[in-house]
Amino acid sequence: MRFCIIGGANADIIATTFNQFVPNDSNPGTVRLMAGGVARNIAHSLALLGNQTIFLGLFGGDTFGWFTADVCRKAKVDISLSDAAPVGTRSCFLSINNCDGEMIGGVSDMVSVDGITPEWIATKLQKVGPVDAFIADTNIPAESLAFLIDHAYAPLYVDAVSGAKAPKVRLALSLSAKKHIHTLKCNKLENEIIGEIDGIGRRFVSKGAEGVDVYEKGKMTHFDALPCQVVNTNGSGDALMAGIALAGPQASIEEAARIGLKLAMITAECPETVNKQLKQRYEELS
């Protein structure tokens, strides 16, 4: 399949404690640097699975940005239509994880995505060519997401990213003319913030270890998570979205959830935000 993914690309700094996190103190643990960003992670996962992925984004204008772009190239993610933000512009994310791999909190410093304007996207879409689906995250401005809703010429999937950025979904739909998103993926907090709203064909609500609830045509269907040994939850939600899109726009919610939950499980079992053994593990489980 061929995908166009639009949104955040940043360096992830993941700090994980050896024992239960103690607030207001120095906690022994590990600190790792890896490429991240919701849209970038989705593109990376889809590329590992043999798909053609075109990433549209702005890499930070610093060493973190150069590092992230290099990881994309090595993963065979097509970044030829992406740009570098002005020198000194940052794009990084710091996450503090408890010893069980669950995130306690994080700080997002992603000024570079502000440059992904409707005008910038318009010039890029002219060069993308045919795709099976577009995937966007809410790191981009709401006006840019609204532009995509109106101008994406294939089904549009949207990842809500975080509680702070989830309101962009509602705003983008209100600003758009078409007012329709094929699929929205969010977690419980993001779902509560977005609330009931028209214009969403399918809504996948990730509930972590509890699985995922899928809403379509006024009906909710629950799918249990697959059992796994969690090492790092950062990136597992992005893998879920990659699997949902990989199933294809015409797939049933059962098929989309099955593939998404499988990729999420595989990703949660490794310390990286994208499991480099994703294809091998996926084929073993299929």
Can you walk through the features of this model?
The protein has 286 residues and is an alpha/beta fold. The protein has one domain (2-280): Ribokinase (UDP-N-acetylmuramoyl-L-alanine:D-glutamate ligase). The protein is 33% helix and 27% strand. It has nine helices and 14 strands. The protein has helices at 38-48, 63-74, 118-128, 142-151, 167-175, 188-194, 236-246, 253-268, 278-285, and strands at residues 2-6, 10-17, 29-36, 52-56, 58-59, 83-84, 92-97, 103-109, 133-137, 156-159, 181-187, 200-206, 212-216, 219-223. The strands form three sheets. Strands 4-1-9-10-11-12-13-14 form an eight-stranded mixed β-sheet, sandwiched between helices. Helix 1 packs across helix 7 and helix 3 runs parallel beside helix 4. The longest helix has 16 residues, at 253-268. The radius of gyration is 18 Å and the shape is globular. The mean pLDDT is 95.
Order of helices and strands: EEEHEEHEEEHEHEHEHEEEHHH
Q: Which structural category do the helix and sheet elements fall into?
A: alpha/beta
Named CATH architecture: 3-Layer(aba) Sandwich
- Low-pLDDT stretches are none
Report the top-level CATH class: Alpha Beta
What is the count of distinct domains?
Answer: 1
Main beta-sheet annotation: 8 strands, mixed
CATH fold-level topology? UDP-N-acetylmuramoyl-L-alanine:D-glutamate ligase
Question: Mean pLDDT score, rounded?
Answer: 95
Distance between the termini: 18 Å
Portion in helices: 25-40%
CATH superfamily: Ribokinase
Walk across the major sheet and give the strand order.
Answer: 4-1-9-10-11-12-13-14
The whole-angstrom Rg is: 18 Å
Number of helices: 9
Overall, the morphology is globular
